[in-house]
Specification:
Keywords: Signal. With 461 residues, the protein is of the alpha+beta class. Helix content is 48%, strand content 15%. The longest helix has 34 residues, at 229-262. It is globular, with a radius of gyration of 26 Å.
Length: 461
């Protein structure tokens, strides 16, 4: 073989090897640890771990495991949920800390548990012991092997999403390359998506994006769409952003607490129960939008993404995003996002919460007219329609179950979706309440109703 030919062959082999490694690194997997924890918290009736979208699999899990609903690990999970709020990402932070081998479950000896969520407190070892007993007594691996076809197909179909991800962006944007691997895990029993990570005792960093399934095809098997890459990017960003939020939170806490108080209802609706969690999320969301702009998203698309996040209560995402633009333009001065974080702290701490809230409220829709006035008495039972008018085109409407409601049917009266017609059947001598909750009534930009609106009335004889 000629030297040039040998060199070309070597380069081709090297390129193929590198490409294969990168592809393997981003190939979706189904993780027995994630499935195990999802089953336990499903049995414990944690809503975020009750996903019935893939009904074939949910039914199979229930049929196999329901007889273990009073197991010690299930009772402990219920106790930890109630007492310490163990749920959501705390559960997945536990899953990736574990090792399953030789029909046993234990903490990975290569880890120091630093990545374990604080909500576990001193209960972690007790929980893992009970989990080991559950794994063995239920013959969990038998169930796991029996459902391999479902797992394999889910991972194969998720490849359409993972193929879209430019993993090199994370290292370029955040300014460092993790000493480890990226892991994509598909789950079928949990709701929501999670981005935990762990660092081994030797310093190897493993970054996870744990995604759930929400849609199935005509045969009942899960399907995924390319647009779900935004969720994948979001979850990977958590492993980079959360440590920064943690590191600088003491400098941000006072102002962050004020900002959180302004939008606590919206935050808690999204399962973000603290100012610190809100800081993690806004860093992640701004970084995720930056990913899309750096990979070809138009200015108009970026503006829509920013507006969508403001509608969810992330009031200063515009200011944060402008700061990230400054960071991206000055990388010689700020090689890493960690180097730039003091500037982000300044941006947040100079905000005026009341001004941001006023701007937010000005974007929110309002109910401007109802055909029946609030507090009306002696309403005739012959009334068949109540009209409610919003000042902006709406994406959704919603009435809570507070108070007594009439039998009713709701429909939009115009294509702009600003006039809602409520067809009613009224009973005599009855006090009714139509409670329009802000979070159930969103306009087409995603902004919630400016404030709750209660339409109360009483019928006559």
């Amino acid at each position: 073989m000629k030297p040039k030919t040998r060199l070309l062959t070597l380069l081709l082999l090297l390129t193929t090897s590198i490409s294969s490694f990168a592809q393997d690194n981003l190939s979706p997997k189904y993780d027995e640890r994630v499935e195990l924890l999802s089953v336990v918290f499903r049995l414990a009736q944690s809503p975020e771990y009750i996903n019935n979208a893939v009904k074939l699999h949910a039914d199979a899990a229930d049929e196999y495991f329901n007889k273990y609903s009073n197991h010690e690990v299930v009772k402990l999970a219920q106790k930890l949920k109630k007492k310490r709020g163990v749920g959501y990402d705390a559960v997945m932070s536990m899953a990736i800390q574990l090792e399953i081998k030789n029909n046993s479950v234990y903490f990975n000896p290569q880890l120091n548990k630093d990545g374990l969520d604080d909500r576990w407190g001193n209960y972690a070892d007790e929980f893992v012991l009970a989990l080991r007993n559950f794994y063995q007594e239920s013959k969990f691996n038998t169930f796991f092997k029996a459902n391999q076809k479902m797992y394999d197909l889910a991972c194969e179909r998720f490849q359409i999403v993972s193929n879209e991800i430019k993993i090199e962006w994370f290292e370029k944007f955040f300014g460092y390359k993790p000493k480890g691997k990226y892991h994509i895990v598909v789950g079928l029993l949990h709701r929501g998506n999670y981005g935990p990570k762990y660092v081994t005792n030797s310093g190897e960093e493993n970054i996870y994006s744990i995604l759930s399934a929400y849609k199935v095809d005509s045969t009942g098997y899960p399907v995924f769409k390319k647009h779900q890459k935004s969720t994948l990017v979001h979850e990977f960003c958590h492993s980079f952003c959360n440590p920064l939020g943690e590191k600088y939170y003491s400098d941000m806490e006072s102002k962050a607490t004020d900002l959180f108080a302004s939008v606590s209802t919206l935050m808690k609706r999204q399962a973000y129960g603290s100012a610190k969690t809100m800081i993690y999320e806004i860093l992640v969301r701004a970084s995720t939008i930056r990913y899309f702009e750096d990979n070809g998203a138009s200015k108009n698309a970026v503006e829509k993404l920013l507006n969508a996040e403001k509608a969810k209560g992330f009031l200063w995402i515009d200011e944060l995003y402008k700061a990230l633009e400054r960071y991206s333009s000055n990388r010689s001065k700020y090689p890493t996002l960690n180097d730039f974080m003091p500037e982000i702290v300044k941006v947040q701490n100079n905000l005026i919460a009341d001004d941001l809230l006023s701007e937010f409220r000005s974007n929110c829709p309002k109910i401007i007219r109802t055909s029946l006035k609030q507090g009306t008495n002696n309403v005739s039972t012959s009334l068949k329609e109540i009209i409610v008018e919003y000042d902006k085109p709406m994406a959704s409407y919603g009435i809570s179950d507070k108070g007594k409601q009439p039998k009713m049917d709701l429909e939009w009266q115009n294509k702009e979706r600003t006039i809602l017609c409520i067809h009613v059947e009224l009973e005599p001598n009855t006090k009714y309440l139509l409670d329009f909750r802000s979070v159930f009534n969103e306009d087409k930009q995603g902004f919630p109703l400016q404030e709750n609106f209660e339409l109360d009335f009483t019928t006559g004889e």
